Amino acid sequence: MSQQQKSFERLPVASSPEQRFDEYLQSRGMRNTEQRRILLEYVFAEHEHFDADQLIERLPTKGEEGYVSRPTVYRTLAEFVDAGLLKKFELDGRSVYEHDYGYPEHDHLYCEQCENLIEFRSHELTKLLETVASEHRFRRSGHKLIVKGICESCQKSRRRTRRRVDLI
Amino acid sequence: MSQQQKSFERLPVASSPEQRFDEYLQSRGMRNTEQRRILLEYVFAEHEHFDADQLIERLPTKGEEGYVSRPTVYRTLAEFVDAGLLKKFELDGRSVYEHDYGYPEHDHLYCEQCENLIEFRSHELTKLLETVASEHRFRRSGHKLIVKGICESCQKSRRRTRRRVDLI
DNA sequence: TTGAATGCAAAGGATTTGCAGAGGC
DNA sequence: GCCTCTGCAAATCCTTTGCATTCAA
């Protein structure tokens, strides 16, 4: 599943994901295990959105060198989120992860045809949400926004079997 | 679970949810069953966000007059969404429903402490998303936005057991 | 009458958990 | 050596499905 997305510049960050995760582990008395190192490597090998299954597909299978069990994958992804390395959101009922550490804030366009996520950034959106929150005396900690529709290339390509689309 | 939300005026609509659903059923050769009538009544009895379980809790239980089975509840909620009566979105991995027909478009603030949803409307947001979409030549069909944080009343009340909160 | 809808039971998919053994520190 | 972490298996949660029966039109 290829990703159609702009390449974003990295933010200047003090340290690598590895370093940051080490600090996280240290500060909590957690251990730097083989499995955590493997997962960190695979997760940061490419800048893509992925779910647990997609990650597991890329990992060595049982019996091979570097195998990590499914429960450990789930547990470790949660740790990465907790450590601020990954961001997690829901899409069609499953959990999707993306890089957080070192990448600027952004939101997504989601093509309901090809199911690709397209990143975009909008400073105006941030300002707008700040305004809305303050009007409600709401202390904002973050947001999740997905704009659904059909991407440019799917509009161009011939309309295939029309998929049933949510009425919104 | 009480809802803290502004009362929104209803949009001027041509017909009641019942009438609209009848038309929907007619147009598809579907039948107006006892169960569908019961569910429509319960769903539109109050303007609240709810999930399948919360709805089922309010319904008569097995053996009582007016009981509707769980599979039928799920099937019928999907029909309501399809008919444009309800809108569906995901929150913490489960499906949440809210009135759509007769209510203006809006988005939500979600309090991570009391777990209430607070509605807000922003025309500027709509305009902004139109702009973003057109910049990407994206044909927008809708969006899902949830702003997370702490609501006014939870900020005032004494901080209880600090819940673990997503880093965003 | 006749096909659509219901309820039951059971399956499904994603994610989580209890626990005994393995392994960082 | 202690205590965390892992893998296994099984459980959990939410939702969907197959099928025989019921029922609206």
Biggest interface reads: A-B, 45 and 45 residues
Helical proportion of chain A?
25-40%
Q: Helical region count of chain A?
A: 6
Kindly, what is the distance between the CA atoms of the first and last residues of chain A, rounded to a whole number of angstroms? 26 Å
List the helices and strands and how they pair.
Two copies of one chain form a homodimer.
Chain A: H1 17-28, H2 34-43, E1 50-51, H3 52-58, H4 70-82, E2 86-91, E3 94-99, E4 107-111, E5 117-120, H5 123-135, E6 139-150, H6 152-156
Parallel strand pairs in A: 4-6
Antiparallel strand pairs in A: 1-3, 2-3, 4-5
Chain A binds a DNA duplex (25 and 25 nucleotides) through helix 2 and helix 4.
Please outline what is shown here:
The structure is a homodimer of 168-residue chains. Chain A has 168 residues and is an alpha+beta fold.
Describe this structure in words.
The structure is a homodimer of 168-residue chains. Chain A has 168 residues and is an alpha+beta fold. The first copy, chain A, has two domains: 13-101, Winged helix-like DNA-binding domain superfamily/Winged helix DNA-binding domain (Arc Repressor Mutant, subunit A, Orthogonal Bundle); 104-168, Dna Ligase, domain 1. Helices cover 36% and strands 21% of the residues of chain A. Chain A contains six helices and six strands, in the order H-H-E-H-H-E-E-E-E-H-E-H. Chain A has helices spanning 17-28, 34-43, 52-58, 70-82, 123-135, 152-156; strands at 50-51, 86-91, 94-99, 107-111, 117-120, 139-150. The first copy, chain A, has a three-stranded antiparallel sheet. In chain A, strand 4 and strand 5 form a beta hairpin. In chain A, helix 2 crosses helix 4 (70-82). The longest helix of chain A has 13 residues, at 70-82. Chain A is globular, with a radius of gyration of 18 Å. The two termini of chain A are 26 Å apart. In chain A, 23% of the residues are buried. The A-B interface holds A 81-84, 87-88, 90, 93, 95, 100, 109, 111-112, 118, 120, 122, 124-125, 128-129, 132-133, 135-152, 155, 165-168 and B 81-82, 84, 87-88, 90, 93, 95, 100, 109, 111-112, 118, 120, 122, 124-125, 128-129, 132-133, 135-152, 155, 164-168. The structure holds a DNA duplex (25 and 25 nucleotides).
